[in-house]
């Protein structure tokens, strides 16, 4: 069987429980057609680069799938029908990532960085490499 990554964007006004139900529906479609979902990642509510169907944000969900091509065709057909999904993309991959995806690793890293100081980063006056300001004459 082939390996796929399927990412879909759900409308911003959905509750997290509804987004989880969409992921469960996709998983059921795949498993009913002799496929297997190896991992489900919910990336959360994220801003879009541009408005899509009057939405500025969307819930992102990624599924790692091990299934034949016909299963993916059925999954995409069902996804197109669903009004709660505003975009989707399925990519065939050579191998599936075992651990968290790059998006999840980036979120963990940024959460950890914010946790140390409780804000976004170093203060502007804490540059360390500059002494008092000097004018053009060096004084």
Q: Notable features of this structure?
A:
139 residues, alpha+beta, Alpha-Beta Plaits, four-stranded antiparallel sheet, 33% helix, 35% strand
Radius of gyration, taken over Cα atoms and rounded to an integer in Å:
22 Å
Strand content bin = 35-45%
Determine the fraction of residues in helical runs and give it as a percent range: 25-40%
Report the principal-axis shape. Answer: elongated
User: pLDDT average, as an integer?
Assistant: 85
CATH class designation of the domain at 2-95: Alpha Beta
Distance from N terminus to C terminus (CA atoms, Å) equals 73 Å
CATH architecture descriptor of the domain at 2-95? 2-Layer Sandwich
What's the CATH H-level homologous superfamily of the domain at 2-95? Ribosomal protein S6/Translation elongation factor EF1B
Query: Count of DSSP helices?
Result: 3
Task: Classify the fold: give the CATH topology of the domain at 2-95.
Answer: Alpha-Beta Plaits
| Helix vs. strand class | alpha+beta
Order of helices and strands: EHEEHEH
Kindly report the spatial arrangement of strands forming the biggest sheet.
2-3-1-4
Number of strands: 4
Give a quick account of the main beta sheet: strands, pairing sense, barrel closure: 4 strands, antiparallel
């Amino acid at each position: 069987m082939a390996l796929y990554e399927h990412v879909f964007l759900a409308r911003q006004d959905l509750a997290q429980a509804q987004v989880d139900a969409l992921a469960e529906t996709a998983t059921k479609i795949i498993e009913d057609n002799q496929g297997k979902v190896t991992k489900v990642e919910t990336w959360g509510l994220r801003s879009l680069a541009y408005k899509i169907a009057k939405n500025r944000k969307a819930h992102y969900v990624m599924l790692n799938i091990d299934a034949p091509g016909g299963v993916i065709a059925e999954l995409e057909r069902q996804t197109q029908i669903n009004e709660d999904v505003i975009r989707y993309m399925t990519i065939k991959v050579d191998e599936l990532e075992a651990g968290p995806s790059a998006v999840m690793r980036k979120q963990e890293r940024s959460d950890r960085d914010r946790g140390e100081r409780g804000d976004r980063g170093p203060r502007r006056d804490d540059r360390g490499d500059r002494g008092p300001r000097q004018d053009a004459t060096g004084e």
